Amino acid sequence: MGRLDGKVIVLSAAAQGIGRAAAIAFAKEGARVTATDINGEKLKELDAFEGIRTKVVDVTKKDQVEALAKDHDHIDVLFNVAGFVHHGTILDCEEADWDFTMNVNVRSMYLMCKAFLPKMLEKKSGNIINMASVASSIKGVVNRCVYSTSKAAVIGLTKSIAADFIEQGIRCSCVCPGTVDTPSLRDRIQAQPDPEQAYKNFMARQKTGRMCTAEEVAHLCVYLASDESAYVTGTEHIIDGGWRL
């Protein structure tokens, strides 16, 4: 018996990193997983795992999100993972950067929650997990202005949904990682003028001496998706190796 036996789970940004690790972890615990991403080529790799079906979806597009929701008669867990990390202060953030980040990091979650929540309310049961970050209202982080602002908004969205629908059987929580060793992070490091120094800078702030792994975040997500967390809602779940301290 898996911890998620029979649960129907939909998640975004599943082609790599935390989303991929979570999709695999969900499926291994018995869930029926719909894994979505805009990167169809990488997403196909998940087809090899029993319990996972893949679908190319741009979660910033309302029509695609609504079509995804219509494709599901029932859903137990919605995991919103899609996000983008902008580097810079407010002075480095142009209007286009602000709009793009907010669209990917916040509006996508608004669209997904609005599309899938009615299905949960029909059953008076549902669980939404949103990907936030320690870089948010939790901790001020250098050169993460619009990213931190967007993730603080995710925390606010999470608490709002949790408060509005708690009496209708809906739970909503968010995951707040610190620095996670993912392909996205590695790409951002390589894009810096001095990748070696950029890597050292990331490592210097890791009080445990290492970064978090995507699999470690996935373990937390399995707990939040399971009935083990049935009394948990409206809360931020920090997994940062003490970075915020």
Automatic annotation (TrEMBL):
Coiled coil: none annotated. PROSITE patterns: ADH_SHORT. InterPro entries: NAD(P)-bd_dom_sf (IPR036291), Sc_DH/Rdtase_CS (IPR020904), SDR_DHRS6-like (IPR051122), SDR_fam (IPR002347). GO terms for biological process: erythrocyte maturation; heme metabolic process; hemoglobin biosynthetic process; lipid metabolic process; siderophore biosynthetic process. Keywords: Cytoplasm, Lipid metabolism, NAD, Oxidoreductase. It holds the Pfam family adh_short_C2. The keyword Lipoprotein does not apply. CDD domains: DHRS6_like_SDR_c. It catalyses: (R)-3-hydroxybutanoate + NAD(+) = acetoacetate + NADH + H(+). GO terms for cellular component: cytoplasm. It is an enzyme of class 1 (oxidoreductase). Pathway: Siderophore biosynthesis; Amino-acid metabolism. SUPFAM superfamilies: NAD(P)-binding Rossmann-fold domains. GO terms for molecular function: 3-hydroxybutyrate dehydrogenase activity; 4-oxoproline reductase activity. Its EC number is 1.1.1.104, 1.1.1.30. It is found in: Cytoplasm. Belongs to the short-chain dehydrogenases/reductases (SDR) family. Homotetramer. This is Dehydrogenase/reductase SDR family member 6.
